[in-house]
Fold these 3 entries.
Entry 1:
Amino acid sequence: MGKPTGFLEKTRQLPNYQAPEERIKHYNEFGEKPSDELVNEQASRCMDCGIPFCHNGCPLGNIIPEFNDAVYNQEWEEAAKILFSTNNFPEFTGRICPAPCEAACVLGINEPPVAIEFTEKNIAEKAFELGLVKPDIPAKRTGKKVAVIGGGPAGMAAAVQLNKAGHSVTLFERADEIGGLLRYGIPDFKLEKTVVARRAKVMAESGIDIRTGVNVGVDVKTEDLLKDFDAVALTGGSTVPRDVPIKGRELKGVYPAMDFLSQQNARVSNKEVLRNHRGEVVEEEIFATDKDVVVIGGGDTGSDCVGTSNRHGARSVTQIELLAKPPETRSEQTPWPMWPMQLRTSTSHEEGCERQWALFTKEFVGDGNGNLKAIKVADMGWSDPEPGKKPHWVEQPGSEREIPAQLALLAIGFLHPQHEGLLNDLGVEYDERGNVKAGDNYQTNNEKVFTAGDMRRGQSLVVWAISEGRECAYHVDEYLMGSSNLERKDEGKHALNSW
């Protein structure tokens, strides 16, 4: 334990952000670089609990008390060794993970939790700064070839782990760069794309064959894929967006949120804008400039739309959510160490946004010329339950009204991966939600084909994608070699010697 009294002496403190009125003028990350003293102080707050619930809160099983201890003692190489043993990409999760580990922090029962995500990011950045992140070229190759289809965080993690095991790995991505929604989805002001490119460079130098701009199933025939590789890992995303099939949906001005966000990612990087995150050609650029913007959906993607709209110079931004407003503090229904149901206000909300809850979207209203001019909504509430039945959501009489809008962004999630093409050609089975069906060993009905990430579990967090990719790699390696030495969740300590 770094400092037994640290949690008594210091409270939670994070670096300051650039003022909202300044940061909306650009698309760069806007947090101040923290001092080593601040990082040291925050790490000292870890209590080194007898039972560290943060381990279970983290889908990767990060060994959190140990890396906090190393940071407090300024042993950066040791801290990096511990962190990278369970997490391939802490430079990503340290920026954009919602930190379920912090929700499970024991200190969080009656004090602000330990700033785990903050420490994680700083370990990763210090590791790059000190030259500790180096290509991981295996000493011996197995002679086995593995294709990883999908270059998001699940595919990236699977590729790194399989390469580490000595297999020859080809990572296919249909976009022009790997990263998935890290690259074309999450705004630069949350994750600058140089961070993704930096990691891709290390992967390529480690011997991973990264092939971008390749749509497997079209550019590479499915039969060739199965013939040329000993195993295939399907790690694509959940890319079919959930829709709002109501009157006026066809109006100009109504778009899936990810089309809007991916265009801005491309714009910031001076790339071709008229392609969406699925690599498909689209007809027009989407701007929020001088428009009343309504974001439908209250999650992180909706928040990203708010921040991007403000940077475009929107006239007004309103975010609406079907569910009721969460409580300001942890709900009794989600006690510690569960992920708490409570109101979350992002930095994008702080930049300017009206938020409305328990609203039902009834109609997109046109101006008579095919353009969106407003959204018709109504308040929702609970019905009076009938005897023996549960109450349900109903529209509140007399609450119907219109919200001015020339741009509506549908940030309501995704249904499942694209079935047409590769997946149907492979003949993989789907589960009841339309995701690729796999057993506990991540293997599909085709023994040679495995799957992980959003394609298997449905849309989820980046930290879950990395966890899935690592676990899938373990099972692929086991399938190819009969056993595997790759580390799994809760086995990270066994991997420390490989640093």
Entry 2:
Amino acid sequence: MEKVSVIGIDLAKRSFQVHGARPDGSVAYRRKLSRGKVLSFLASQPPCTVAMEACGSAHHWGREIEALGHEVRLVPPIYVKPFVKRQKNDAADAEAITEAAERPTMHFVAVKTEAQQGQAMLFHTRDLLVRQRTQIINALRGHLAEFGVVAPQGRARLGRLAGVLEDGDRVLPEEVVELGRLLLGQIEELDEKIGGLDKKLGACARKDEETARLMTIPGIGPVTALAIQAFAPPMESFRRGRDFSAWLGLVPRQHTTGGKPRLGRISKMGQRDLRRLLIIGATAVIRQASRRGAVPDPWLAGMLARKPKMLVAVALANRTARIVWALSTKKETYQLRAAA
């Protein structure tokens, strides 16, 4: 059997392209396999490195291939693209994955466990239901506005629309009232489902020691804590807190040349869901501090005195990400720094 050091696999639904490379980098074989023959082929190969693009099904295949004794490397697709030569096809993609995985400075994605993917599905399901509820509320507001019934934005003001539909003194077409009640019923049903998921998220967050530790940080609740556990790789894979913040896309974009540093807005090149949750949590912390009048955190008080609130929210989200890395690696709880 021919010795290979790296096997690159271009994943698909039914047809998989496999590229084998020898230790010197030369091509050992190029093969096209059906979905059912991938694992049997890899089982016949000696232990080596198997590389794939980090996509939706890559984590499932990664767990199955690791069980065969191979080392799995998941490469972000954006890092594979520069290695594709001229025309793009499955064979060229598999070869590019192989070459990218051989680079000594390449960054890889950790293979997620089934528990992590289950938590990610729980978060995405709740997020989907919240978006659907918002769409129905906006649809109801828009339809009733055509009949002169205007209500402020927000789910908390929904009672005003419900009161108009139940008010017999106000003349609205019977069909409008019937359809409005139908939309209100859909909103109530979604409220019940989202509430059930919130209870499940809270129970899971309190039960796990790591998420309970993260919830001691201001601006991080059960949803954000579980999202960090589900979407983020092990914190030990980052050398420092700034690396984790950069992975989230919360650091300034660089365009430095000739020794002159040029920093712009945040890069937004990382995990979108976590970045959004951290910024929302930071905004809530700033809003709560503004209501109290006195800000207990000296760093936050100094930033609010000099910068706009939205800019401070992004900076606070960056700082929170670094605190998450510190608490996760040191296994400690959050303690607010006292003013000098």
Entry 3:
Amino acid sequence: MNQQNKKSLKSTVKGVFHAPWEKSFDKILTPFEEFIHQQTTSGLLLMAMAVLALILANGPLAADYTHFLHTPVSIGAGSWSLEMSLHHFINDGLMALFFFIVGLELKREILVGELANLRNAVLPIGAAIGGMLVPALIYFAINPEGDASRGWGIPMATDIAFAIGALALLASRVPRALITFLVALAIVDDLGAVVVIAVFYTDTIVFGPLIAAVGLFGLLLMFNLSGIRKVTPYLIVAALLWYALLQSGVHATLAGIFGALSVPAIPRYKPELFSEHVKELMQRFDASHQPGQSIMTNDELRAVVQTLENGVHSVEAPLQRLEHAWHMPVAFIVIPIFALANAGIPLAFDSLGDALMHPVLLGVSLGLLLGKFIGIAGVSWLLLKLGVAVLPKDTRFTQIAGVSLLAGIGFTMSIFVAELGFAHQPEYLLMAKTGILATSMLAGIAGLVWLFLVSKPVKTLDRGISE
């Protein structure tokens, strides 16, 4: 190891050793800044997985790729067993974790985020509603009847990871409030997609399991109201809720939303009590510390550290703790796996002209690109003109218009709805996915160019987002 590397491994503070990526106390990120960092990286990873899926679906491994996705996956205990294809397991099982994170983000935004203040919430809520209705209407105008009409929900969704990842590329030119606006808009958009899935994309209902699911959700609410702050009971009952919904015919991923909404948002300790507790523990820590002695051989010191860890968990709300713990696995594992399993579409360039004129592809593409722009920018303009909403701090309407283009990046949720709407129409599903992928790329480029042209470098750069 050379001298420079030795220096990089040693802290300037005596007694602290770490590698450059382990400086856990050197930088404090707010929950919002941490969220933006993870969404930006997740967007890049999603793009890589989508490209890989396209390569696999159109290369010499295409048959193996398709066969692998249809591999049976079985979970069982005794006489009970649950079997589904790997593709089904990813879309109905793993994606429940994605919806769980969506639910946690939604609850946090309503309680303490951008949606908590009605005056600030009017614009993103109204914009999101316009950005859902107009694309659906455009799609339905092109596909008013038959099986193709089931795809009206596809262009309603915005992919939060891709959209925020794209906007973060211009972090030095756009105000932080614009990113906050996009986050709030995308979360309301996700909620709308969840409602659409629950109400319009459920074919058959089995009432026995549905009643059991209602009872399990009621049990989760009882946990909350009775003051249970341990997360394990919530996770166990939420898993049972997922299985009950799977058997009922309602899409099982909605268990993630219901489970998240029941998670307590009130911590066990108040900040004042936690502060006093930490001060007492640090006094014991200092009194028990013996220079040169490892913490492994000092039982008193180890006990203080463990108690301090327990206190940290108790001053955090369970909702906050779960969102922090699960956001990274979902962003970096679950969603990329979903992209790898669902973005692989066979491309037939010889019939590309016919495909571009297909009603389903046209409906999805025009809905995402034109519908999102008209819906979000149009409703925002109307609300501002009526005086019922205000622009986010330091932003201009031209920047809101640029964000409305970025909102045309549909990807994750759009593909998810397409899988539900066209589960038995492979041609329509192929056209829908082709439209989603092509238009998402076009919307991202158009939005970035627009925002670059209408924005100037900000004077005070928010280091937490841009670094």
